Structures are given as structure tokens and as C-alpha cells.
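Researcher: We're teaching a course module on how sequence relates to structure. For the next exercise, students receive a sequence and then see the predicted structure as C-alpha cells, so they can try to spot secondary structure elements on their own. Here is the exercise chain.
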Amino acid sequence: MKKPLLSFAFLGSVVLALPLPEAEARTYDNIIRPYTSARSTGMGGVRYTTGQYDENFFGNPAKTSDNPKWRLDIINLLVEVNSGAISNLNSYTKSGDKVDNLADTAGSNNHVRFQTVIPAFYTPKFFDARNSFAVGLMMSTQADVGLRKNMSIEPNAFSDIGPAVTFSRKFLHDESIAVGVTAHYVYRVATRGNFSTIDYIKGNNFKSSSDVAGEGADADADIGMRHNIHWSPAGWKLQDAFTVNNVKGGKYDMKMDLVNGDQPAPPEQPRTYNAGLAARKDGFLGFSTSTFAFEMQDLGNNSGGSVFKMMHLGGELGVKDWVFLRAGINQGYLCAGVGLDLPVLKLDFSTYGEEMSLNAGGQEDRRYALRLGIAL
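Model: And here is the predicted structure for the students to work with:
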């Protein structure tokens, strides 16, 4: 037991020792992520030690080496909403006094995300058995719309689009170490910081350039490694991982002019440090595959937040290699999910709690994600 305990202690000490940048004040203090996965969120948010295929474009590029086979994504669509958006939809659309309708939603967050990775190609062998490669075009639009006590609305809406290219290589005679890098070029446009009640009453929306807080592009990279530990207690295969994402700091300071008018740079996507430890075993309790992982994430994108907000714990159990049951704890909240991995059709569903305050356990945002995939 000493070796895994030492590994956890080392990973934790590395994460806690890294510097934190300053964060901008917002109504909500949730962590903004450019990409999410229904598989990952059903497993407590773990992905740097467990990521597969598209999860590695904004996760751990070294995990591309562990993709089980090549894949070509024809459709990869994810839709995510929270319980607030579902319950408040009637208030926004019903007839009657708009102020009263809006007041009914005060204090609740409305979250929605629409995300695609089309097209995308992944291969675990690229000119050499030790090389792996992946390329895809990502588009993600997410929004957290909250009503403040002064009746102004803070939209916090982002749209990102751009290609990502990943290359990884295995090292040593037993290929126990893999190192990878992902280069991504992303254009981002974001709504302005607030939208007053007067705007809402007038029927204004977010169609004009004045509603945009900024636009710009960024060429950045993620680097990561994974290491197969030379120790298998009771047949469990252990693997640790470490990544630095958005190495340049995600400034989006490359000028773009797709929206009329001179716009400032949009909100940054800070550099983050992530580390974790995973255990895998085939045949555990009769399941075809079993994976459990613990990760510390988003150091650098959680300024002022508690360390518990960066903790993620989860697992996945495979049934006959095509049905997967998932569960975990994301920032202190329970998560669950299920996945179907058929020869062409891929389906994933998850429900998880996202922390909206600085400290774990402060304000849960219950979310639901559904992913539809068609792949060869």
C-alpha cells in the first residue's frame, strides 16, 4: 500500500505547489472549461488518466497512445443543460408581465452547452507502432445565465471553434512512458458582462456587436505524460499522469474581425496543471473492464477556490465491452452515467453536480449531458 499512497502524496504536492493567477470577479465562480465529455462527467470529471479519443484534445495528449483502436467520427454531438434551465424555461416563454416572469427565476443559474467534434480522426499507430495521432475540428458554445439581486443578467456566454492536432509517442523498452502534445488554434467570441432588466423588457437580445464582450483567436498547446507504474497489487494496473494545458495562457489576443466593430480580447482560458492516478483491472466482480481514478484538476483556473473544488474521483465498469456504468464525485457532488459503445453508434448520458461558488459544497448546479456519436 505504500507505493500508491506515495504516488497520491506526490501528485497532490505537485498540484498544491504550483502558482495561481488572479481571477476576474463574476456572479458565479464556476470553473470555465473549453471542452467537456459526457463520459468524463459521469465518472466524477476524471479524464487526464482515463481520457479516450476526443477527451484528449483538451485533456491529456499522451493518452492518445492508449486509444484501443483507430476511429473516424462522422457525428460527435453533445448537448448539456442544468436543472435551472429546464425549470425556468416556462418562466422565460410564458405570456404575462415580463418583470414578474423574470423575477421568478432570480437566484438560479441557467446553463446550456452545445458541442461538436466533426470531423475527427484518431489512430494509435501513426507510421510507427509507438506513435499516435489525432486531429479534429471542435465547436463549443456554452452559457451560464444568472440573474443578480439588482435585476441585471450576467450571461457569461462563450463560443469557441477551431482545429486540434495531437501527437504522442511511447518511450522505453516496455513503452511504460508516453509523452504527447496537442496544438490547437481557437477563435473565441463572448457576450458582454451584463444585460440589464431594461434590455429584457425592450425585447433586446444578443444579436448586435454591442452585446459582444470580445473576440479573438489563440494558438496554444497542451503537453502531457502518462506513466505505467511497475507494480500491480492484486492484479490492478496503476497509471499516473500529469499535464500542463494552455501552456501560453490562453490570451486570445490574436485580432479577429468577424464581428462588426473593434472588440477587445475575450476572457482568457488560463494555464492549468492537472495530475492523477488510475487503477485498471479486467474481470473485477465479473465486469469485463474496471477503471477507477483520482485526479487534482484546474490548478491555475480556480483562483481563491478551495482545494476540494479541484478533487475528482470516479470509475467505470464495462459490461460485455459495449455497456459502461459510471459513477463518481465531482467537486464534492455525486455523479452517474451510462454509455453504449456499439460498432457504429455511440451514446453517453451523465448527470453531475458542478460547483458554482469558490468552495466545494457551496452551491451545486445539477447538470445533464447527452452525447450522440456516429463513428467508423
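Model: If you want an answer key for the exercise: The mean pLDDT is 86. The helical segments are 2-17, 38-42, 83-93, 98-103, 197-202.
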